[in-house]
Amino acid sequence: MRHDEQIRVLEGLMNHLDNDTNVDVGHQLKNPVTAYTDPARAALEWEKLFQSYPQVLGLSADLPEPGSFFTNRDLGKPILCTRDKSGAFRAFLNVCTHRGTMLESEPRGRKNVFSCPFHAWSFSTSGDLVAVPKEDHFGTVDKACHGLTSLPAVEKYGLLWVSPDKDVPIDLDDLLGPELSDELAAWNMNEATWHNDTTYPHACNWKLAVDTYGETYHFSTLHRDTLFPRFYGNCQMYDTYKRNHRMTLCIRPIDKMRNEPHDKWHVLRGTVPVYYLFPNIQLIMNAGGVTLVRIYPDAKDPHNSRSEISFYTFPEERRLKVGPIFEENYSITTQMESFASIIQAEDYVAAAKGHIGATSGALLHVTFGRNEPALHHYHSTFNEALGLPPLEKVGG
């Protein structure tokens, strides 16, 4: 993030604190509860947002060297991501071209050759068929025509994008726009190291899980004893970039910066920037690393979903010495994992209770307040991408 932009964000938060204000959209929105419960809506979302739209599947750190790989089944089909011998990021359908057997079963690792467990047809990290056992018995195989099915894959800004549809290209300039592209590049996420993954299932529609990342209005209530002692609630800066956004949370150490010269200010000393990448990604930046949250629906059930959360750390020399958000003796990784565990224990529990409410018949719609701009943005862009009518504005 450019330093002048850091100053704008920090000064904006201080102004909100001083004047007891927050970002104000100027109106409320009504969102029908059927957006969370309707099976037909869920099927449309799965097709349009998760089968036909580029997805972030990880960071560059997930493929640290040539021969590194990881597998993924979050999009309803087996995907194999590799770093080939030249260092390029590649993605394929994880399916042997002989009899359709899933080729690689391990979640991650390092291999130069992937050998099918059924008949040992073998493929390189570039997806080429390189060996057919007893080809003289099987018959001649045109290896050039039997490589793995390649998927569009782009590595940029330290992020790994894959299109789950081989016929849908990835145009990051169109998806992100120049401002967000420049900002993501400035974080140098390609320098991070993978630390750990965890999965959090939640008994709610996937969009209710996304909604928990959309406002800090709830901090003083839901997080009263956990995050609120360290974060200011109902105070944020909010900026959109096409279908994406940056929501900047305000942490209490911002108060120590007020009497310092601007050239000593750093955004991570007083905030936690959270980037949303349409349709399901949250990138949480902190002084020592990055937390990547990928939220997925159940393809067949609008009432269940899950979060795949990955933790990455920056090299020691890149970690900003700002003091801990949590306990003094917490390591960077423990702080990130603690933040995620609070989301699981509090936010996702509240989301599941909200889903019970949505299915109860008590409400026809939920209301997004003037101080909840991310919720406006999430659901307005969902509807726009799905070809649905805009949400109804109410109030002032």
| Derived structural class | alpha+beta
How would you sum up the global shape?
Answer: globular
CATH topology of the largest domain: Naphthalene 1,2-dioxygenase Alpha Subunit, Chain A, domain 1
Proportion of beta-strand residues = 25-35%
What is the percent of helical residues? 25-40%
Tell me the number of strands: 20
The number of helical elements comes to 11
Query: What is the CATH level 1 assignment of the largest domain?
Result: Alpha Beta
Oligomerization state: single chain
Using only C-alpha atoms, the radius of gyration works out to 23 Å
* Spatial gap, N to C terminus: 33 Å
| CATH homologous superfamily (4th level) name of the largest domain | Naphthalene 1,2-dioxygenase Alpha Subunit, Chain A, domain 1
CATH architecture of the largest domain: Alpha-Beta Complex
**Average pLDDT:** 95
> Biggest sheet: strands side by side, in what order?
12-18-17-16-15-14-13
Low-confidence stretches: none
Note the main sheet: 7 strands, antiparallel
The total tally of domains equals: 2
Structural commentary:
It is a single chain. The protein has 396 residues and is of the alpha+beta class. The protein has two domains: 3-52 and 173-394, Naphthalene 1,2-dioxygenase Alpha Subunit, Chain A, domain 1; 55-169, Rieske [2Fe-2S] iron-sulphur domain (Rieske Iron-sulfur Protein, 3-layer Sandwich). Helices cover 27% and strands 30% of the residues. The chain has eleven helices and 20 strands. The protein has helices at residues 3-19, 34-37, 39-51, 135-138, 172-176, 178-186, 206-211, 219-222, 267-270, 332-359, 373-386, and strands at 28-32, 55-59, 68-72, 79-83, 89-93, 108-110, 113-115, 122-124, 129-131, 153-156, 159-162, 193-202, 231-241, 244-251, 271-277, 281-286, 289-298, 301-313, 365-368, 392-394. The protein has a seven-stranded antiparallel beta sheet, with helices on both faces. Strands 5-4-3-6 form a four-stranded antiparallel beta sheet, with no helix packed on it. A hairpin with a 2-residue loop joins β16 and β17 (289-298). The longest helix has 28 residues, at 332-359. The radius of gyration is 23 Å and the shape is globular. The two termini are 33 Å apart. The mean pLDDT is 95.
